[in-house]
Specification:
Blueprint lengths: L2 E7 L2 E6 L4 E4 L14 H23 L4 E12 L7 E12 L4 H15 L1 H6 L4 E10 L1
Helix pairs in contact: 1-2
Length: about 140
């Protein structure tokens, strides 16, 4: 996997992925930024949520469960001093579908957390990671 990041101006950078996508990153005004894009650590957190959500949906679909939606809300704390690594991350899953079993959703989240989601497993080296979820019948 490869990526490139190019400095645009002040605290703005353009990230370009190997798959051909781009994203603007920027800092807050107090750091010379203009608040035009995500902060890099927000991207790390968002990417991790995307990684685990992808796993959960994939696992449920592979198990032939009727999943129609998956949303992950993430709350995180960072260290007060440099390096300001994540110290606590909580994932709250809202998984919707028809006839979804609580146990199947729980197992999919557990498999993602313990085996498949490289991002959350990596962040788990510095942060306490917790999960909870709700199943919504549609």
């Amino acid at each position: 996997m490869k990526t490139r990041v190019k400095w645009i101006e002040e605290a703005s950078f353009l990230g370009m992925s190997e798959s051909g996508h781009a994203v603007l990153m920027d800092g807050p005004p107090d750091s010379g930024g203009r608040n035009l894009g995500l902060r890099p650590m927000e991207m790390v957190l968002m990417g991790t949520a995307g990684c685990t959500a992808f796993d959960v949906v994939h696992i449920l679909k592979k198990g032939r469960h009727n999943v129609s939606d998956c949303e992950v809300a993430v709350a995180a704390d960072r260290a007060d001093t440099e390096p300001k690594v994540f110290t606590r991350i909580h994932f709250h899953f809202r998984v919707s579908g028809r006839g979804l079993k609580h146990e199947a959703v729980e197992r999919a989240i557990q498999l993602s957390a313990e085996k498949y989601c490289s991002a959350s497993i990596m962040l788990g080296k510095t942060a306490e990671i917790t999960h909870d979820f709700e199943v919504i019948e549609v």
